[in-house]
Amino acid sequence: MKREVIVACDFSTREETLAFLDLFKEEKPFIKIGMELYYSCGPDIVRQIKDRGHKIFLDLKLHDIPNTVYRAMRNLADLKVDMVNVHAAGTSEMIRAARRALDEKGSDAILLSVTQLTSTTEEIMQQELWIPHPMADTVRHYAAVSQGAGCHGVVCSPLEVQDVIRECGEGFITVTPGIRFTQDEKGDQKRVTTPAGAHHLGSHYIVMGRPITTAADPVAAYRRATAAFEKGIEE
Fold first, then answer.
1. Pick from 12, 6, 72: which is nearest to 38 by CA?
2. Helix (H/G/I), strand (E/B), else coil: 82
3. pLDDT over threshold 90, residue 183
């Protein structure tokens, strides 16, 4: 499986987003559209970016009763995105509803579940979410439940990738946010590593936002991240 960098286009407007994409004259980066952009611009921004030739990870983290997720996923399937996700905490029944919706629509989108956000520490998870298990065990369990319910992979921190692989096998996809260059601030991310670190930990895809989108030269930052992730060497 080819390792790919997914660029998180966490912009508020269509104009900002398209101006950013216009910087890329040679590459067509894999793009993540999250809540901020989708709620601002709606499904048309997905169609517009798809028409430009980009693959899209639609990161809306569906989490509701199974019937609501089923109906929502049927609508999202019409957008022909390449990846879409739900929250693993929504239960296996909810995940199976999302899987059924995609299958009924003939979608070949990669279905992912979100295990624990990279902004969540083990302490927060245990004290506020009342999950009394270690982070690694929790992520591994959520991954196994998600796999059994029809997910192709999970969104997890790079620090849990090896646990997921041991539980679910090499073919189970890991998409890992929380990726920063060595000199970058962590921001609101807690469980992080570098592109090269993610390579060695076994991530299939990494998600990078601000280190690329706010860089002085976003194209150079994207190329640097891609090279480091592919080769496992910081540059």
1. 12
2. coil
3. no
Each residue's pLDDT tens digit, 131-140: 999 999 999 9
Residue type, position 123, single letter: E
Q: Rounded to an integer, what distance in angstroms lies between the CA atom of residue 19 and that of residue 227?
A: 24
Identify the active-site residue in 25, 55, 61, 231.
61
Confidence (pLDDT) at 117: 87
Q: Are 30 and 4 in contact (CB under 8 A)?
A: yes
- List the structure tokens of 164: 């997921």
Percent of the chain with pLDDT over 90: 90
The gap from C-alpha 172 to its chain's centroid, in whole angstroms, comes to 14
- 210: nearest Cα among 175, 178, 234: 178
61 among known catalytic residues: yes
Nearest Cα to Cα of residue 179 among 200, 153, 164: 200
